[in-house]
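Reply to dn_fold:

You asked what the input looked like. This is it:
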Amino acid sequence: MRSRAIAGRHLGWTADDLANKPWARFWKPEMSRIAAPVEAAVIAGPVAEPLLPGFEASRASLIAGDEGLENGFALCASGEMRIALATEMPGVTPAMVDWWFGWHSDSPERYKLWHPRAHVHAGWLTSPPADSTGRGRYVGQVSAVDEYIGSDLGRFAIAFLDPDGHGFGHASLQDGSATLVLARTGLADYPFDVGYLAHHVVAIGGGSLMRSRFWIGGSLVAARRGGAAGNLAASAIKTVLKPSGDDARALMVHCAQEMAHLATFLPALHGGQGGGS
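and this is what came back:
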């Protein structure tokens, strides 16, 4: 669902931002081409639905690494869209990714570092606890973001969830060798959730591998407040929010771009900030 731009919110950094923000040296408006496997999957088009597990099935298969298709998208009979893609992140550790997800929504400028050509605005609905760090800083929080997916501007509510409490628990998430960013995705301007996202990050030689998954639409659409009226409205939203192949391609490209771009500056940014604010 396309959103209207809000006055004062814009792509890019201003001259004042560049002159005064302490992380200005990490503003890199030029972005690299997406990875070849993702590009090939975008060109190839949708795959058979059984090749990409749904949200429930992925609770076991994602962390175990036994999902067969690493890059692709499926348009399901239910109206659900499923997306998978993998990003190599040289020099990045799982702990750095947790730090980033707790840091980037503190200001729009931080969020814009991530995808200079698509991110417009971000902010927490409520401020995280001042003394929180790592996963503890973003789990349980909601980030409201304005971003372009392809040419469409959307405003989304990203409610970060505890992996352990949603069936994604694993010893690797506790020993530092991996992390999993899990969120319920919804609309910021309307009281509806529309899907889930997960970014599983596991340490490999020289950095990390991020395996991203999106499950959007179909039976995953729900009213946040429930009740008969909410359920009726959610049913109506499902008919409007029926993702297409173009939607899937746009989201795949967006995620591939932002995660690869993040890897180009996150190790230095994290080190420069001392893993703090």
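The mean pLDDT is 92.
Hope that clears it up.
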